[in-house]
Amino acid sequence: QVMSLTSRASFPGTAxxxxxxxxxxxxxxxxxxRGALFVLSVAPPQAGQDAPSGxxxxxxxxxxxxxLGLVIGKxxxxxxxxxxxxxxxxxxxxxxxxxxxxxxxxxxxxHTRIPSVSLTALKHMTRLEMDGHWLRAARAGRADxxxxxxxxxxxxxxxxxxxxxxxxxxx
Length: 171
What we know:
Blueprint: H1 5-8, H2 20-28, E1 30-34, E2 38-43, H3 56-62, E3 66-71, H4 80-97, E4 104-110, H5 119-149
Parallel strand pairs: 3-4
Antiparallel strand pairs: 1-2, 2-4
Helix pairs in contact: 4-5
């Protein structure tokens, strides 16, 4: 199967968390990152999400994937223009990184009042922070997969930043 670039970087309805029952486990789950504005939490996918049926379309929709939920409240972003801009930027960042992320339900929550800056500056701040959070989530997923699949090798190499005390020499 050949996928075009637009289909690879999509954000289908199946990649969204919609109901409170879908949000709850992710909000109670592991906190992956906390930045100046946002907290990124993740939970393993729910059992019903990865149960394929006989229909091909349903199987594609039911394949385990990274899913996104947003909690952007009026308390911290009083203007609807700001809330909508933040949500658009988070969705766009997620859309580009979705296939590189480990399977799970991700919730991004605004945890502090947004600064009084221009909308352009707010979008830029949001995108920079979220790109960092998604990168950290992808790295955490790779580390989890590598520790699950094989035992970790012990690094006995002496480098300037670590391990110099191990053998009593200075590097």
